[in-house]
């Protein structure tokens, strides 16, 4: 099953701000409202890049895509380790991971972004996902 590359969000804007965005779209600066909002968010993230980097280092977070595999979890269990996975971006749990293996190997799962996992895994880890 192909997963979407984007997450949909909803925001509330005042009438004046929305009108200003519509004016920029009408004048051809942006293709549509979403284009403006994506650009504004990217620009703000660039402006705050140092703060994000310091926070990532402080919290020992992984940035970007984090694929969690069955073999990784099996190896952790074999070593007697419990994983504490922290991701800024997208975390994906492989579909061949069993709920029992996930509970045995994952002590906590923090995702700032999106988590893609089979419903059974999400249910098994619901008390460990933040």
TrEMBL record:
Biological processes annotated in GO: regulation of DNA-templated transcription
Signal peptide: none
InterPro entries membership: Arc_rbn_hlx_hlx, RHH_8, Ribbon_hlx_hlx
Gene3D superfamilies, alphabetized: Met repressor-like (1.10.1220.10)
GO function terms (MF aspect): DNA binding
CDD domains: RHH_NikR_HicB-like
Pfam family, one: RHH_8
Sorted UniProt keywords: DNA-binding
Protein name, entry field: Transcriptional regulator, contains Arc/MetJ-type RHH (Ribbon-helix-helix) DNA-binding domain
Organism name: Paracoccus chinensis
